[in-house]
Design a protein that fits this description.
Layout: E1 12-16, E2 21-25, E3 28-31, E4 34-37, E5 57-62, H1 65-72, E6 84-88, H2 97-108
Antiparallel strand pairs: 1-2, 1-5, 2-3, 3-4, 5-6
């Protein structure tokens, strides 16, 4: 199932690529340090106005009322996995050509050369 910006609703928890937790409030994501506007995100939940990909959204959680405070308070040793994970970004793993050759050799049993 494709998850897009239109699926984001107030009260959801967001985790960005740099590990920052946010709460969705209307068209904003907020935490105790500040806020970001969802208008700065493309439909695939990546920030399109900035080179820094640290604030790309990588996880979205459904939070119930008593989880919201704990979501932001790491002092309480709250396990974020206790919240309902709705969506998680799946990205392709980057490997070198040498790693690709090694993996192909393991699978096929033959030496492989990749021409670039």
């Amino acid at each position: 199932m494709e998850f897009t910006k239109k699926d984001i609703k107030s009260g959801m928890g967001i985790i960005t690529r740099n590990g920052t937790n946010f709460l969705v409030v209307d068209h904003m994501i907020v935490n105790k340090y500040g806020y970001k506007s969802l208008y700065n995100y493309s439909d695939n939940l990546m920030r399109f106005e900035y080179d820094d990909k640290g604030y790309d959204i990588i996880k979205v959680y459904s939070l119930i009322e008593n989880q919201i405070y704990k979501f932001f308070s790491r002092d309480f040793n709250y396990n974020i996995n206790d919240a309902n994970l709705i969506w998680e970004r799946k990205e392709a793993k980057e490997i070198t050509a040498e790693e690709a050759c090694r993996i192909i050799k393991e699978k096929c049993g033959e030496d492989v050369v990749i021409k670039l």
